[in-house]
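I hope you will forgive my troubling you with a question about protein structure. The record follows directly beneath this note:
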Amino acid sequence: MARPLAGALAVPADLATRLAYERPWSARAISRCTCVRGFDRRFDELWQRARSGYSLVAERGSDFLAWRFRRSWDTNLVVGFSPPGEEKARLAGYAVVGFRDSQAVIADLFLEEPARLAPAAVWLLCEWVRSHGFESMCLPLAGCPSLLTALARHGFQNRTPHDPTLKRPVVEESPDEVLVVQSPTTALPDVASWHFNLADDI
């Protein structure tokens, strides 16, 4: 008796949930996400447009991404986010999705304008992950409050909250070339302005 009742209640509950989160953004932001094979000029153009919007971020050009994920095409897919009508010409962001059993692991998620595009990107990514049969999804991330807010709205939980009492590291005189620091000071900016995830674990 309980099983048929649960099934009957699940249909309207699922519909209500989808309506509550149905396309919570302007249609001009991102219209869809599609699988991309390899890293082409669109990734370089995205990196050039977006890099100044982050205080502390690592390289995201096509050469770096191709090197970073060169041995993992069997376990990763690249999903590109595109504005309406520009699916083949322009990327507003992308995600690299890895697989671990029945879980989708987001190895990289990079957006041109996180504050404006994060709600759309997270919604589309969750929809894509569900449609491909994954039971859960995780995104290791340091910084980027816009993304964290969008993730929290979709039920993600922060498993490793930042401890503000910890000392910040200091940038060396000649930092690694792969690190792009937009801050004019020698001390790293607050963690909220960082953007690091698994792609940076090299």
